[in-house]
Amino acid sequence: MKKIALTLTVLLGTLSASNATAFDGDAEAGKAKSATCAACHGPDGNAPVNIYPKIAGQHADYVYKQLKEFKLGMTSGGSEGRMDPVMSGMAMPLSDQDMKDLAAYFATLNMSAGTTPEDVIEVGQKLYRAGDAERGIPSCAACHGPRGNGTSLAKFPKISFQHPEYIKAQLEKFRDGSRNNDMNGMMGDIAKKLTDKDIEVLSRYLGGLH
């Protein structure tokens, strides 16, 4: 818990003390390059199949970071970055500018709204907003914001309206270590403290958070 709190303090101090560089992706160029992405993520960035993430409206900086790390996962044989059998292969032929253009394009689109089942609102809201101090679980809102919109500068993703199935899969990967491209291992540290029930509740709660 102290490690996570210290990381957040240092990060926020660094961001507030420096000016962010402008993201130089070209959305129009990205649109022209996005046809292949539509097969999984949909023509409007809202994946019709729930195992794939919605990337419409996602922060450009975050999408760019993930694309770079998917490519790194392939070139490093999985020892670095983020390895995925589909996305790492898709990212391989992309240039740095291609990644920036695609990220800029999808950031201009609107993520489709989701829903939160009534039976998870109370527990999900408590865990998301306050965490669980006794188990050393910090508030999700501390990084992802009260509405789940994330932060572009810190590359914390928008997680509201995301497919619950995708959120669940990513939390499980952070927990078992098969995904470890999070800053300073923060998500891995947190996910290891989550039970299956916690992950199920949070995943379903985020679907309709706004």
TrEMBL record:
Binding site for heme c 1: 37, 40-41, 87
Subcellular location field: Periplasm
Domain of life from the UniProt record: Bacteria
Binding site for heme c 2: 140, 143-144, 187
Mod. after translation: Binds 2 heme c groups covalently per subunit.
Record-level Gene Ontology MF annotations: electron transfer activity; heme binding; iron ion binding
GO cellular component terms given for this protein: periplasmic space
Cited InterPro entries: Cyt_c-like_dom, Cyt_c-like_dom_sf, Cyt_C_IC, Cytochrome_c4-like, Cytochrome_c_Oxidase_Subunit
All copies of domain Cytochrome c, residue ranges: 25-110, 119-210
Alphabetical keyword list: Electron transport, Heme, Iron, Metal-binding, Periplasm, Signal, Transport
Record bears the keyword Thylakoid: no
Gene3D superfamilies in alphabetical order: Cytochrome c-like domain (1.10.760.10)
Signal peptide residue numbers: 1-22
Record-given protein name: Cytochrome c4
Organism: Pseudoalteromonas citrea
